[in-house]
């Protein structure tokens, strides 16, 4: 019987009320209200937004480059020569300059 009375006389712990914040929650709320913490949170949010924008730009550039590379693989040497001749016909001055520069560098490259 002594065991039964010991159980009855033991103090029961009061149930914690989940609506009432504890010491750590109160400290966390105070820290969140600090201007430095708010400024850091805003900086992280801006950085996250910029990262998302940069990721989208990277995806677009990567897709465009992949399409161009795929197009180059399908282009023959004759097509490249035809496009070059058409460019020189549209822009004769630039064509002459390009020919001079190309000739200069090829001369330097193959000179003994």
What does this protein structure show overall?
The chain is mostly helical. The protein has 2 domains: 22-74; 76-112. It has 5 helices and no strands. The N and C termini lie far apart (114 Å).
Envelope shape: elongated
Largest sheet: none
Helical fraction equals over 70%
Q: Roughly how many Å apart are the termini?
A: 114 Å
Number of strands: 0
Beta-strand percentage?
under 5%
Briefly note the structural class of the backbone: mainly alpha
Low-confidence stretches: none
Compressed to H and E, one letter per element, the order equals HHHHH
Number of domains: 2
Radius of gyration: 37 Å
Mean pLDDT across residues: 82
**Counting H and I runs of at least 4 residues, what is the number of helices?**
5
Keywords:
112 residues; mainly alpha; 2 domains; 5 helices; 0% strand
Describe the secondary-structure layout.
Layout: H1 2-9, H2 23-32, H3 35-74, H4 77-90, H5 92-110
Helix pairs in contact: 4-5
Summarize the structure.
The chain is mainly α. Helix content is 81%, strand content 0%. The protein has 2 domains: 22-74; 76-112.
């Amino acid at each position: 019987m002594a065991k039964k009375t010991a159980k009855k006389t033991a103090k029961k712990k009061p149930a914690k009320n989940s609506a009432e914040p504890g010491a750590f929650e109160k400290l966390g709320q105070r820290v969140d209200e600090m201007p430095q913490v708010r400024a850091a949170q805003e900086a992280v949010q801006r950085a996250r937004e910029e990262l998302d924008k940069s990721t989208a730009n990277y995806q677009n550039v990567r897709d465009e480059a992949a399409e161009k590379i795929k197009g180059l693989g399908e282009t023959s040497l004759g097509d490249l020569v035809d496009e070059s001749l058409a460019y020189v016909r549209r822009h004769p001055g630039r064509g002459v300059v390009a020919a001079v520069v190309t000739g200069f560098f090829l001369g330097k490259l193959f000179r003994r």
